[in-house]
Amino acid sequence: MSDNLLNRKAYYYDLPEELIAQHPLKNRGESRLMMINRKDKTIEHRKFSDIIDYLNPGDVLVINTTKVIPARLYGRKETGGSVEILLITPKTENEWVCLVKPGKKLKTGHKVIISEELSAEIIDYLDDGTRLVRFVDGNDKPVMDFMSLLNKYGEIPLPPYIDRKIEDDDKENYQTVYAKHDGSVAAPTAGLHFTEELLDKIRNKGVIITEVILNVGLGTFRPVEVDDITEHKMHSELCVIPKETADIINNAKQNGKKIISVGTTSTRTMESFAEGTHLGYGTKWTDIFIYEGKKFNIVDAQITNFHTPESTLLMMICAFGGYELMMRAYQKAVEERYRFFSYGDAMVIF
């Protein structure tokens, strides 16, 4: 393994700004699909609905059924001045680790007023620059049903590279059609390409679709700021593998069938529970960071979007697909004018 592949700068590529998708396509299944064959080192251009041609009876498609919550709140300081709060990780129902902007003048004990019935109290400064925040009602008591108030006052947190205001359609567009477990601050975006119709066709072909959960937080998207990527520290994210899912995957592997993860979050979840080539189950917090030299024990193929330069997601994809092949694929995607990032096009690496 080259030491160069452990350097953040090895994962930089030039991306014209106009290729960053600002809106999704009207029909999810009409996104483009780049098919990357690791064995033959070939790259093929298709449309996303063609993914069914790659799947065979008995193969297992693993989806992340987490649901994006309206995790961005806007309020004002008691002394005046607007504040933005982004929920990241729950500690209890009413206490969350949050990003607070601007947060420099907000001290422990200060409050941010969101509405007459909801305020946020800063209760601790954390080492990574985040804040521990307690949400209280108008009487400074813990709120009884925080999620209902979040749904009332919160906003779906689109990524910063989507340079526009949130629109009504984003509430639906920035969720997978199978999202059902509240908890993420960002969508598992590879899943955004699937329609109910396509999923039905996949099931009817004899492909098994099974579920995991990883609540997407800051860990997935936090930028790598150190040159030596082995020194990068991931934030922990909650993930779950039901026993039924583990049984399905272990049985399929024993029978020589493919395990295809939908998205890097599904991959990270499965590899976090890997016991050799056997998949465990349960609930845990994971800070797994997969990069060059790390082994994949469970996943045989990955469906994923195109990721930002120098990101942990791109590093993981390069570890899976092979650095030279994947960087060539990204260069080809730029040349062929693929749409990048959350609302963009997809690839399958097999």
How does this model look, in words?
This protein has 350 residues and is an alpha+beta fold. It folds into two domains: 246 residues, 3-Layer(aba) Sandwich (QueA-like), CATH 3.40.1780; 82 residues, QueA-like (Thrombin, subunit H, Beta Barrel). The protein is built from eight helices and 19 strands. Strands 2-1-19-18-14-3-12-13-17 form a nine-stranded mixed beta sheet. Strands 5-6-7-10-9-8 form a six-stranded antiparallel beta barrel. It has a two-stranded parallel sheet with strand order 4-11. A hairpin with a 4-residue loop joins strand 1 and strand 2. Helix 7 packs across helix 8. The chain starts with 31 loop residues before the first strand and ends with a strand. The model has no long low-confidence stretch (mean pLDDT 95).
